[in-house]
Amino acid sequence: MFDAATRTVVVVGAQWGDEGKGKLVDVLAERANWVVRYQGGANAGHTVDVGSRCFVLHQIPSGILHPGVRCAIGNGVVLDPETLFTEIDLLVADGVDVEGRLYVSDRAHLVLPYHKLVDSESPASKEIGTTGRGIGPAYEDKIARRGVRVVDLRHPAQLEALVARGVEHANAMLEHNGSPKRVDVGQTLDVLRGIAPRLLALADDVGLAVHRAMKSGAAVLLEGAQGSLLDIDHGTYPYVTSSSTTCGGAATGVGLAPTAIDAALGVVKAYTTRVGNGPLPTELEEPLISRLRELGHEYGATTGRPRRCGWFDGVVVRYAVRVNGLTDLAVTKLDVLDTLDRVAICTGYEAAGDVHTEFPSDLTALDDMVPQYEWFEGWKEPTGGARRMDDLPPAARRYLDRIEQLVEAPIRYVSVGTRRDQIIGS
Ligand code: GDP
Ligand code: IMO
Ligand code: MG
Predict the structure, then answer these.
(1) Is the pLDDT of residue 2 over 90?
(2) Confidence class of residue 25 from pLDDT cuts 50, 70 and 90?
């Protein structure tokens, strides 16, 4: 992706998350100087297989597995310090050197224990099927201007007042939701005092650091979390996460100009999955849904929940190409379809005799829409060893060609297995 003219690249999920962003970021990070997360928090689960080891990163950018790459957590992320430190310690125990190359924006908001409690005790969160990581409540506090930022840890007196406000609101929410549980200012402050020295040692003005790196010609990867259909504005609201997952969020979430972004790589699975509730127009039925789930090991990397599975939805990805301005696509998990007799692509939704090819904003309209499928013969041979497009069976290439044509973005990468080397494209 990187060349003389393309120095800043966003990697964004173009479905409902878990598209394989971690794998693509790891592959691309080989040629990057910086990898920066711009939104979301520990709700993300980005899997990277390196040799026989499998890393699942929730809070730290997936570039961390390449020595020498600088990694940062941008201001748009809601940062869970407990997860961050657990993750750092696990990486260090695994021989990954994190020291001196991980930065945290001092403007990032903190996910505090009471955010997680409010999330897990909320009927609304259960209805959406959130990850329970406190994401919604932390972003609510941010927008309502009662959040606690990393920078606040520098000022103990102000911190106490901020926490008191946050705790008061959290307790009101717990009471409102009929929960007997309550949180406490003293306990929360104890947690914060415990983590402050370690967190402040990582704190920096990430926007400025990335800006300076860009000016000196650095290759910068902006790593999205979740997926475009989980975006707070463009997703299947209210069945979404609480952040701007799409490319626009990358600029505000790192603190750089939208014009600084040179390319946007959308990551999609060769089929569709979703974890949590909300519409999934191409969702399969038994027994195929279980078969695809087992073939693709479709269980959430953060919560372990079984993922819902469906055929590739061309309407969804076409929409994601538009709202992100995707310049390229990476199609992952093609190998998962290797044994199927036939595979389908959804080309439009039919309702009252009309075929819709634009994703609707009104979810109730989706209820009456019936996906229209184009069927393709299965290729029935393993693709895991393919390293060039020419190595793929003709039937698999026909399938990919149709996706490219339908969604109006070029496929630059095809991933055919979990390993780093199982990738086509450069
Ligand atoms: P992310 O959240 O977008 O980073 O994706 P996840 O890590 O949650 O889920 C993707 C899963 O698919 C992980 O278990 C990856 O190891 C796996 N994966 C990624 N690319 C491929 C591929 O091309 N083939 C197969 N079989 N698995 C893949
Ligand atoms: P990565 O980065 C898939 C889903 C949850 C739920 C909704 C809201 O690994 O692709 P939240 O906890 O964010 O308030 O939950 O969003 N969700 C994800 N689904 N991949 C993710 O992240 C997700 N992060 C959140 O299941 O439906
Ligand atoms: Mg994931």
Answers:
(1) yes
(2) very high
> 28 pLDDT exceeds 90?
yes
Tokens 């997952």 found at: 245
pLDDT of residue 303: 85
pLDDT at 419 over 90: yes
Q: Token match 């929960």: residue?
A: 179
Spell out the residues 6+ positions from residue 205 whose beta carbon is closer than 8 angstroms to its own: 105, 106, 107
Please give the Cα distance from 247 to 328 (Å, whole number).
13
The reported pLDDT for the residue numbered 22 is 98
The sign of the CA dihedral 375, 228, 19, 280 is negative
Lookup result for tokens 């983590």:
195
**pLDDT of 329:** 98
Q: Which residues of 286-323 are buried (b: 16+ CB within 10 A; e: fewer)?
A: eeebeebbebbebebbbbeeebbbbbbbbbbbbbbbbb
Choosing from 26, 46, 119, 141, the catalytic residue is 46
Res 150 pLDDT > 90: yes
Residues 155-182: pLDDT tens digits?
Answer: 999 999 999 999 999 999 999 999 999 9
3-state SS assignment for residue 394: helix
> What is the chain's mean pLDDT, rounded?
97
Q: How far apart are CA 198 and CA 241, in angstroms?
A: 29
Mutate to test the pocket of ligand 2, among 55, 226, 246 (most ligand atoms within 8 A of CB): 226
Around ligand 1, the residues with Cβ closer than 6 Å are 13, 17-23, 45-47, 49, 301, 332-333, 335-336, 415-418
DSSP H or E run through 332:
strand 328-332
The tokens 């899997």 sit on which residue? 47
| CA pair distance 307, 204, nearest whole angstrom | 37
Burial pattern 232-270, b for ≥16 Cβ within 10 A else e, equals bebbbeebbbbbbbbbbbbbbbbbbeeebbbbbbbbbbb
In ligand 2, the atom with minimum distance to the C-alpha of 230 is 16
Tell me if residue 190 is catalytic. Answer: no
Q: Which two tokens stand for residue 66?
A: 């390449």
Give the pair of three-digit tokens for residue 14: 């173009």
Instruction: Give the pLDDT score at 426.
Output: 83
